[in-house]
Amino acid sequence: MSEATEKKDQELEEVINQEEKQAEGVETIENDSIEGAEQGAQAELSVEEQYEAKIAELEAKLQEEENRFLRLRADFDNMRRRNQLDREASEKYRSQKLLTDLLPVIDNLERALEVEVTSEDAKSLYKGIEMVYRTLVDATNKEGLEAIVAEGEQFDPNVHQAVMQESDTEKESGIVLRELQKGYKLKDRVLRPSMVSVNE
Hints:
Distance between the termini: 151 Å
CATH topology of the largest domain: Nucleotide Exchange Factor Grpe, Chain A, domain 2
CATH class of the largest domain: Mainly Beta
Number of domains: 2
Shape: rod-shaped
Helix content: 55-70%
Strand order of the largest sheet: 1-4-5
Structural class: alpha+beta
Radius of gyration: 52 Å
CATH superfamily of the largest domain: Head domain of nucleotide exchange factor GrpE
Number of helices: 3
Largest sheet: 3 strands, antiparallel
């Protein structure tokens, strides 16, 4: 083999080696690009997941605050209604204590009016007591005080207090036969139940 041929073979071999190296470099670059793209996609996906998690967390907090607001609003409405009812009850029963204190006075005046009088002086005193009694009863009635009906009524433990039992075959069992002490109501509230005797 001549030197010229050997030289050509060497040059050809060098060219082939260079092309192989270039091909390997291109393949390496392509692999690096693919790996970089995959890593970028993974990083982008991770950021998106983080955003979604943050959004879910904020939505949960928002829902919690909305529920808290609704509870506070309901509590406020309930408190306002209770205060309104308390004010109405206070206005409705504002004279309860005074009327309760006046009941013994009314009882004493009624007992005084049950006494029979014969002399003119006693009759004048009787009329004066009667006038005071009527004036007092009218004033208390204007405030909502009313006597509880008892005698002849069916016994009602809500407004009657049974202190004794009697027997009357002509009347039904449980009927109030006698009223021993008058009871009173202030509008729909019992101030004092009637003390009664009930038929067996």
